């Protein structure tokens, strides 16, 4: 809860050169930093921001997929999608708990999400327009998330690293499930194939934007790399994702909507890779800054659930207090 | 016998699917994250039970209809669920009370169904009985918290009782098909569940400081396909994609 993790981590630690050097030495020795350990304030703030954003992404991410639960085309798919969206909520819960070890409460983080102060992954500001989007989101969006997240299983902060191990296991299941949905569509009727291609057309570029700006433009990268919160650069992860995904699309008979994409022998230290065409960073920044078609709707939906649930949460607190008082009176 | 057994199984299956669907509407919109996990859990149990029941009904019927044909290709006049489960979610108090009313009935029902003459049904019951015990616990805890929470929550809870209690009588009514399956020892007799149901519910109401209401105008009709207006919308949404692509595999 709120008081946890404050010991040595609340900014009262004197961050002199010796302290910072000792901390960096622990990081360099691949030691895990735990909640009660002394840590630089910047490290703590970076983690709160990153884990909080990650948790919010899981929670907001429930909305676009949740949009198809009530219309899933078979009972098997309905159950699988429901379980998947539930898993995302579970990830949100572990991640909020991991962030709480750094001295911030879930309520505070939620308020920051609802006020717009805290960000979440911009990918969820795109709408899910057909059933194929459910497959494509699993395959591409969860696929991109895994590329980003697998290195986080080795993140220097222990609670985050441990939460990510479980998250990654579930995400990789989701990704396979998403790919299987798309495969079923790609092998289905003409209308189903068209649905799959249309969804790929809409989600491809947003998915590769998920890795963030080019390394030269990335604001937080350098310090996060030194602290081993981040281990690979945005561009390196993006390349890895593209190289893994393009052959999967080819296998399905779908076309990646990048006419400039070419195989380039020189990429990946001479091992070769797919060189992608120019990314529309104006669109990326527009959606990040709130100008996507769903930004307002996503926050409105979260705010509505939060506001309409206020009396329920209040009642739970009041009831717990009454019970405690009655128990005291009876003793 | 097999024709009436199929009908009786469809009644049960429709109850579970429709309620599971209603709960799934909450996913991502619950009052707290813990409920965003708990509501889909219960929905998954219910949809899972419905799938087993549809598949079994289809296999007895023998016309090649599978779970999806039965779920997606029958219209609202062919759906045989009781009215309680199709009621719209309303607020969280109504959702939890609806769950408690239904689970409070299904728990003794599945217990009794474990002694059915039918082996497949015994299997379905053995799985469902464990799940429904959790549904009772979860829903009862919330009914108590809300009934005995704040003034505002008590008002919501009292409104939920007023809204939903009139649909509970139908739980205990057996359609002619169900009555025949009951007489043959295939299914438990619905009327016999009233004692256990009422004991569960009255205990929770007492703890929640809720008044036990008189059901002045008990509502029924679901088992004959005479529903409220909400079910048609639920099915229109649920079935739209499946029906738009006849014969497609998903």
Could you characterize what this model shows?
The complex is a heterodimer of chains A (331) and B (250). Chain A contains twelve helices and two strands. In chain A, strands 1-2 form a two-stranded antiparallel ribbon. Chain A is an all-alpha fold and 331 residues long. With 250 residues, chain B is mainly alpha-helical. Chain B has a single domain (2-244), classed as Ferritin (Up-down Bundle). Helices cover 66% and strands 0% of the residues of chain B. Chain B has ten helices and no strands. Chain B has helices at residues 2-24, 33-61, 67-72, 83-86, 92-113, 119-147, 151-164, 176-183, 194-207, 230-244. Chain B is globular and about 55 Å long. At the A-B interface, helix 2, helix 3, helix 11 and helix 12 of A face helix 1, helix 2, helix 3, helix 6 and helix 7 of B.
Structural class of chain A: mainly alpha
- Sequence stretches where pLDDT stays below 50 over 5 or more residues of chain A: 1-11
Give the topology string of chain B: H per helix, E per strand. Answer: HHHHHHHHHH
Distance between the termini of chain B: 34 Å
Strand content of chain A: under 5%
Terminal CA distance of chain A: 28 Å
Quick one: how many beta strands of chain B?
0
Broad CATH class of chain B: Mainly Alpha
Q: What is the oligomer described by this structure?
A: heterodimer
Which parts of chain B are unreliable, with pLDDT below 50 for 5 consecutive residues or more? none
Mean pLDDT of chain B: 97
Q: Give me the count of strands of chain A.
A: 2
Mean pLDDT of chain A: 93
């Amino acid at each position: 809860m709120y008081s946890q993790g404050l010991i040595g981590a609340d900014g009262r630690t004197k961050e002199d050169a010796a302290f910072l050097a000792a901390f960096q030495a622990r990081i360099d020795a691949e030691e895990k930093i735990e909640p009660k350990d002394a840590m630089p304030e910047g490290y703590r703030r970076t983690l709160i921001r990153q884990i909080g954003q990650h948790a919010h992404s899981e929670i907001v991410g429930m909305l676009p997929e949740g949009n198809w639960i009530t219309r899933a085309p078979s009972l098997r798919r309905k159950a699988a999608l429901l379980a998947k969206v539930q898993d995302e909520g579970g990830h949100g819960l572990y991640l909020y708990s991991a962030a709480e070890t750094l001295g911030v409460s879930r309520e505070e983080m939620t308020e920051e999400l609802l006020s717009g102060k805290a960000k979440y992954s911009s990918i969820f500001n795109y709408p899910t327009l057909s059933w194929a989007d459910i497959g494509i989101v699993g395959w591409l969006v969860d696929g991109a998330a895994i590329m980003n997240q697998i290195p986080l299983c080795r993140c220097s902060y222990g609670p985050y690293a441990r939460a990510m191990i479980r998250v990654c296991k579930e995400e990789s299941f989701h990704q396979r499930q998403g790919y299987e949905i798309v495969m079923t569509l790609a092998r289905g009727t003409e209308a189903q194939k068209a649905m799959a291609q249309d969804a790929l057309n809409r989600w491809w570029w947003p998915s590769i934007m998920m890795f963030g700006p080019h390394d030269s433009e990335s604001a937080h990268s350098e310090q996060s790399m030194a602290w081993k919160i981040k281990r690979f650069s945005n561009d390196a992860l993006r390349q890895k994702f593209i190289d893994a995904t393009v052959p999967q699309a080819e296998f399905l008979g779908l076309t990646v909507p990048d006419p400039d994409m070419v195989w380039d022998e020189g990429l990946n230290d001479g091992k070769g890779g797919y060189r992608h065409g120019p990314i529309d960073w104006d669109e990326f920044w527009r959606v990040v800054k709130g100008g996507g078609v769903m930004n307002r709707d996503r926050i409105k939906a979260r705010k509505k659930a939060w506001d309409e649930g206020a009396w329920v949460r209040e009642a739970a607190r009041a009831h717990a207090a009454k019970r405690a008082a009655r128990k005291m009176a009876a003793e | 016998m097999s024709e009436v057994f199929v009908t009786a199984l469809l009644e049960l299956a429709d109850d579970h699917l429709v309620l599971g669907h209603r709960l799934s509407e909450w996913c991502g919109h619950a009052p707290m994250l813990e409920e965003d996990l708990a509501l889909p859990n219960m929905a998954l149990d219910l949809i899972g039970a419905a799938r087993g029941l549809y598949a079994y009904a289809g296999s007895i019927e023998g016309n090649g209809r599978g779970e999806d044909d039965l779920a997606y290709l029958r219209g609202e006049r062919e759906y045989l669920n009781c009215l309680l489960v199709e009621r719209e979610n309303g607020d969280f108090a109504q959702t939890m009370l609806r769950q408690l009313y239904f689970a409070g009935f299904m728990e003794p029902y599945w217990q009794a169904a474990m002694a059915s003459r039918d082996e497949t049904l015994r299997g379905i019951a053995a799985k469902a009985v464990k799940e429904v015990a959790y549904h009772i616990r979860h829903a009862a805890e919330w009914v108590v918290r809300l009934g005995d929470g704040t003034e505002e929550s008590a008002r919501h809870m009292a409104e939920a009782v007023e809204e939903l209690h009139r649909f509970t009588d139908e739980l205990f009514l057996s359609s002619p098909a169900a009555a025949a399956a009951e007489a043959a020892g295939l299914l438990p007799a619905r009327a016999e569940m009233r004692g256990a149901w009422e004991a569960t519910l009255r205990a929770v109401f007492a703890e929640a400081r809720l008044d036990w209401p008189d059901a002045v105008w008990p509502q029924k009709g679901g088992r004959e396909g005479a529903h409220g207006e909400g079910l048609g919308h639920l099915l229109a949404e649920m079935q739209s994609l499946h029906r738009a692509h006849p014969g497609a595999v998903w």
